[in-house]
Amino acid sequence: MEPGDRVRYDGHVLPATHPILRTRAPTRPAGAPSIVFPPRMLIAETTPPAERERLLDLISSVGADNPNVRRMALGLYQRLTEKLGRTPSAAEVVQWLMDQIHSLVEYVPDPDGLEIFQSIEWTLGGGASTMTSPLTGHPAGIADCEDFAAAVVSLGTALARMGLVPGLVLRNRWWNQPGAAQNHVAAEACHAAFRTKFGERCVAVETTIPGARLSESPMQALARIGPHFARRILGSDEIDLLRGDAPTL
Question: Which of 5, 108, 154, 167 could form a disulfide with 142 if both were Cys (CB 3.0 to 4.6 A apart)?
Answer without folding.
Answer: 108
